[in-house]
Design brief:
The structure is a single chain. The chain has eleven helices and 13 strands. It is of the alpha/beta class. The chain has two domains: 145 residues, Periplasmic binding protein-like II (D-Maltodextrin-Binding Protein, domain 2, 3-Layer(aba) Sandwich), CATH 3.40.190.10; 108 residues, D-Maltodextrin-Binding Protein, domain 2. The strands form three sheets. Strands 1, 2, 3, 4, 5 and 13 form a six-stranded mixed β-sheet that branches. The chain has a five-stranded mixed β-sheet with strand order 10-9-11-6-12, covered by helices on one side. A hairpin with a 3-residue loop joins strand 7 and strand 8. The longest helix has 22 residues. It is globular and about 55 Å long.
Length: 294
């Protein structure tokens, strides 16, 4: 009887240990969206958010074990809705997502998405340009002459998300669900099926890289409807686990040197002429005066 009790106690302890280990494991959902996440090909694991997660956030969360799961971007929101211990880094906050996710304090400020178009085709955008060389996306969508390419399941910030939703189903919006949608959409541009592509300054720079076999000389246009910057967040499932994880994540993100390191990662992917503006945006968003001295 004593032997059986000892064995049962040991088994119970191992089971409890396994339960505790699982209870402290964060499933980080990542996706291929270069240069934010680079999950395949050259530079794998060295995207902006890849490195922010590996070098800054996870080292500050020693109480947790961490598992990485690669999913298509369009499935990301489903995973955070359906799994109690799911988290992701690099999301925008909007009303729909807040129904199923808990968001951290912001971890970086970025220049908002705009329109990318090959320089050889920019003349067709002139009717839609306003002061400051910004593009009026609302006017372009209402006109229905040019077709806009966007990635299905991706947020471009609340203003643009609402604008795309308001024009949903129109013939001049094309949604692409490919893992590397920006590249796919620009290939569709070459075929004449899409006139311009929604994306970010760092994507234009990434795709403009001459190391890229599919080099396209792109021009980036900011959108009239966008704010000066957008904030990126960590998000976890709306559960007791998610609440606790976000509390710990916020402790890490309260450290100025962490935010500084992430900002420098982000700026390194920007075109040269956008880096000074990104620096101003960082200081404005986080109300810091100057950089942390290295």
């Amino acid at each position: 009887m004593a032997k059986w009790f000892k064995s049962a106690t040991l088994a119970s302890g191992l089971f409890a240990s396994g339960m505790m280990q699982g209870a402290n494991e964060i499933s980080w959902y990542v996706y291929h969206l270069p240069p934010l996440y680079i999950q395949e090909g050259p530079g794998k694991g060295e995207g902006i958010v890849d490195l922010a997660l590996q070098r800054q956030l996870i080292p500050g969360l020693p109480a947790y074990q961490h598992k990485f799961i690669n999913v298509p971007l369009k499935r990301l929101e489903l995973m955070l809705r359906d799994e109690d211990n799911a988290c992701a880094l690099g999301l925008f906050k909007n009303a729909e997502r807040e129904k199923t996710m808990i968001f951290s304090q912001p971890f970086f400020a970025q220049l908002p998405p705009g329109a990318m178009i090959p320089r050889t085709q920019i003349a067709q955008l002139r009717p839609y340009l306003v002061a400051g060389d910004k593009l009026s996306l609302s006017k372009l969508l209402e006109d229905e002459v040019l077709t806009v390419g966007a990635q299905s399941g991706r947020s471009y910030g609340a203003n643009i998300d609402e604008l795309l939703q308001a024009h949903k189903g129109k013939k001049n919006i094309y949604l692409n669900s490919a893992p590397n949608a920006a590249k796919s959409l620009l290939q569709m541009n070459a075929l004449g099926r899409v006139n311009l592509v929604l994306g970010y300054p760092y994507e234009a720079n990434f795709l403009n890289s001459r190391d890229n076999a599919d080099y396209i000389d792109l021009k980036f246009y900011p959108l009239q409807e966008q704010p000066a910057y957008l904030l990126g967040y960590a998000a976890c499932s709306k559960s007791a686990f998610g609440e606790q994880a976000i509390e710990q994540i916020n402790t890490v993100l309260a450290r100025r040197e962490v935010l500084e390191a992430i900002a420098l990662l982000y700026e390194s992917w920007l075109p040269e002429d956008a880096r000074a503006l990104a620096h101003q945006v960082y200081n404005q968003a986080f109300q810091f005066k100057g950089r942390v001295r290295k």
